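Subject: two folds for Thursday's group meeting

Dear M.,

Sorry for the delay on this. The cluster queue was jammed most of the week, so I only got both jobs back this morning. I'm pasting them in the order they finished. Each block is the input sequence followed by the predicted structure tokens. Could you check whether the formatting survives your parser before we put anything on slides? The first protein is the one we discussed after the seminar.
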Amino acid sequence: MKELYSIHSTWQRRLAVSAMTALSTWGVHHGLLAQDAPSTRTPATQGYVELLSENDFWVLHGTDRYYTNGGALSLTLNTTPDVVFAWLPKLLPPIPKPSHEPNAPAEIFWSTRYAFTQQMFTPAKISISDKISTDRPYAGWMFWSVTVNRDMRVNGCIKFKNCVDDTLELQVGVVGPTSQADDTQATWHRWFGLNRPMGWSHQIRNEPGLLLRYSRAYPVRHTWGAVGIEGAPVFEAAAGTIAIYAKGGARLRVGYNFDDDVMRGAWSAADRKPSVYLFSELTGGVSAHNLFLAGNTFRKRSDNIAHVSQKNILSEFRTGAVVSLGSWRLSYTHVWKSREFERQDHGHKYGGVTLGATFPL
């Protein structure tokens, strides 16, 4: 058979460009508020350091398959990015102006998150050393990321489009053995007496990875004293060598002292009250590319790199709880994902736990 190179097709590249362009220009047609028009709160610089663990161990009857483990160490600052990444906030689309309250004062809260992350993906049967052509391939992804958050608030978010939450994340890293995902899984399984993973020799090969992800939400809130409920439509799109997708859905939060969650702008522990809330988010969308299913971006068919046919319509539901007390913040998230590839027998679930603390700089 004549060798062909499995490079992303033209329509996939066009979808990536179209998705990011549409997100960047969408607000232009809905009335704009200049980015420097609202007042930007500039409190004393604060930091927030956080550890994240995602694993199917965190859910009952964990299956040790698919997206099986992720770990991250991050530092968040209540400022815009430094000189190196000062260009990143400029990629955010303009903020839509609330047409029903054109003269209401607005505040903008900025934060920047720097993170180091490792993720691993495996087939269902990790005790088999042979290549499994009907299951997802072994893959590791180690990356560095910078995430810019911009939250605009007008009049307590009591009306639609009074508040806008924007997030733009840049991920740069490496896929393949260099990610050290195989060694990480083997070490943890040895420490805890679990099955030894045998098939990492068939993992996706080394290649650099890049992903740009953007999301926007329009929270609407009603409060009764310190107790409140908040709902928000959410939209997200991403493009890069790692993935190309777009999705939308809804988010719900119910709890006590929303604004005293450190990740919502309450940085000073001295001024922050205890915060407890529950959250849920349901999203669905389309996926044009997933490197962890499709295999290496540039390869010959004769290379025999593991890959499977992905599903293009996906859905996800996540729910959990957040507790903030003083300088500390603890959260738990339970995630259900629909089937991602052909011949996958059922969806997948995993849990995530974060522990973090604020500190002055």
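Second protein, same layout:
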Amino acid sequence: MLNNKMSARLFICGAFFLWLAFYFFEDSDSYAIKSSDEEITNPFKTHVDTTNKFLLASNDVDGISLPPDMGRQQLKFMLKAGTGLGELGISTTNGKIGPGLIKRIRNGYMIADTFNNRIIKLNDEGDIKQTLSFPKSSLIQGAAENSKGEVGVIRREYRKLKMDLFDESGNIIHTQPLNIKDEEILYNVGTFRTFYSNDELYINNGDKTLRVSENGETKEVPGIPMENSPGLYVATRMGPNERYIVDIKDDSYKAVKSFYAQGKYDSLKSVYTDKKNQIHVEFEQVIESFSLETQENVATKSTIIETYDQNGKFLQDNIIESNVDVEIDQNVDIDEEGNLNNLVFQGDSFKVYELII
């Protein structure tokens, strides 16, 4: 009887310490985050200045004349698909999915190589200058660089959202769990649009925008902050006759200015602001055009970007038709200069393009 009791106690003690070890192992981040300043020269450099990736056409969308191709789009560099150094990972579980984001940063580009569990910084020629590696248990869901060159990373690990902050050299400053109660954001497994504005970190899930403090606290804000107008935000809503309305709101969620989008579109994708305080609104629209090759009408899903000044004055719009040969065309970002950056997969390589808007 004594032996049975002793065995039971030993079993319970063993189970407790096993649970304790797992608990602390689960919340430990320092063991797996690694930074490398190893520089990798891109063997697939290209000096091509123009490309047909973006087919800017002269179309008429609900009465709006869109500008013709001005040859402004540039193929910056290419990277091979794969798991090795200087390559970008692909998931084929549910169709082909590539890196979670691309961003223009001060001295080049930053790419979230989601399926290789790392973030890479590259120069304008595509040479890798720095790599931040994360454990396989992590899902990178966002990253951005502030004015000091620090990188804030949003990642999911063991059903928790965390923020890592790295200095310019890639050394980790701290890791903080995010205090988020909104289930719509908490259980989102996609990539958040992540960005700094006035050196404050924000995440957006397409519907809501949260400001993230360094201690992990979050607060919902009225919309996308305007870079050079602290306290003002840009939000959108559907108005009468299925036409989108753009609101400029203050901290109290009051609209201080509202205006209609110029066109009538199928859906809205995102809103961006730049350091010139311009507002870029990204829409999707299926556009029919006539193919001279097949002599038939062809429907193409296109991205249309309308640009306004801070007072809502319409400046220009651009239509971007995706090349049908592109297998992955999912990463679009408008940088603080107001230029569009895009990462696509075609053949066996990823290609980075920039379009001067």
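Two things I noticed about the second structure. The longest strand covers residues 279-291. The first helix runs from residue 2 to 27.

Cheers,
T.
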